[in-house]
Amino acid sequence: MPDILRVPPAPESPASFPARVRMRDGVRLAADVYLPGAPDGGDDSPGDTILIRLPYDKSGEYTFIPAIARYFSQHGYRVVAQDVRGKFRSEGDALLFVNEVDDGYDTIEWITRQAWSNGRVAMWGDSYYGYTQWAAAASGHPALKAISPRVTGTGLGEPVRTEPSGRSRRVEWGVTYLYPLTQFFENDALHWEPDWSRRDFAAQAEEFMAEVGARGLSYDQWYPNPVLLPRFPNGDPFAGRSVPVLHTIGWWDNCAPLSWADVDEITRHPNWDAHHHLRIESIDHESFRLDEPDEDRSFDRSDAQIVELLPRTLDPAIAFFEVFVRGNGQAADLPKVEWNLAGTDQMRTSASWPPAGVRSVTLRATADGALGDRPESETTLEWTHDPADLVPSSVDDAFAFLLTRPDEAPLGERGDVLRFDSAVLSADVDLVGPVSARALVASDGPVMDLFVRLLDVAPDGTALRIARGQRQLLDATEPGVLDVDLGQLGYRLRAGHRLRVHVSSSDYPEFLPQPGTGADPWTWGETRSNRQRLVVGGADGLAITLTVLEGDLP
To answer: For residue 298, what pLDDT is reported?
Structure first.
């Protein structure tokens, strides 16, 4: 059993005063309240409040909430930072996702009854504390005037389920069942990693729980016999009263597919779509930036570096709240969509996403490894998926891809990775909008995972991943067509560069690999190599469809 690092709650900030907020079932949730001017007295007159509800310790170093609260307070906001139920100083069971609607409502109700509250509340936060905003909004509390979720989604952390019809489904992340055994196991965070070389993850989970002498409630609700507890009223986060949203997505966020799924769903709800504002940045999940200097890319940031980061992270939300919480200005004054064209320092605005004027371009793979619009007769390419020799993930921490900005060119030299290259660009091309792949595949094994990665190859041969997607085919001995969503792009491909596509059957340990027998990858067991097949050329050959705003692809 690997070492387990227990992380208890950090000391509460002296700039705040502690509160215990009673929920409808009597459970008390711990909160820190920051008032403008604190700790030197503090302004306890009624004012607008920003609520942050998170599972990562409201007082801890990882999320630097005290610094964030101080920045918001300097703009006149009262700030309430709260440990969610079952985490750190809060009472109750550590049960992922399902209590956040009611607990969000009850916390907002508590805020409105405080002497320092004027009855107007906004919410802000990343990842799980972005999710808690969607949950609170779904509660319908009328005091919630605006939310600003970043790098998150209403389906955050949801395990892959068998879809009602069809032969394809998502590929499971490696972190899905690990998260309830680490961050969400009990009040403290318990940091440990499985032995990734063993791959009998279910057995290692049992060893961990035996070591700590307790079961994990969130883990047991998901595995091995899932209990599907509803997250939202009627199962729909957007069914009720709408709330103005500043929705931030990162081009390199590994959770971006969840964000884009919400964007798509919101378009089907006109009351939400009317005041849904989209902001897209060149960041990953941990907010590392594509253009960040090497010396600034570190988790070990000084207090001064953190303070320097706050304006770029928080100012967009402050401007949004100024309109929708304080009523200063008009919604029309705010861009409907504001987005960075990666590879430039430009933030652009548009009335919609994708912006007007884009066009779709389809590139087709050929048997000789080319990618372009050249017609070719149908050919089948093959490779071996070997569970003992998996394609490695390019980063150790998928949530911090831009921390290292890995060169993925060496992966294309492996025998189990197919590589397709476009011609070199003679002029810049701006790729702006959705990217997708369509592939006819098959395997001699019962289940096949297909990973498609789109890369920007520089003149020196290094390759930066700019888009990706993956899909799983069931009953894979019968050929089937997979439509693979590679997400969205806002990226300038420079002259002298080329596009490259990598196709493979594993990306480990970021995604759980197939054992080759059809068995559950989390349980593992016996393994078998599979021969995988991909059609190129002809009507059913591998096709990559991109969206172009400016320029021409070769």
So the answer is: 79
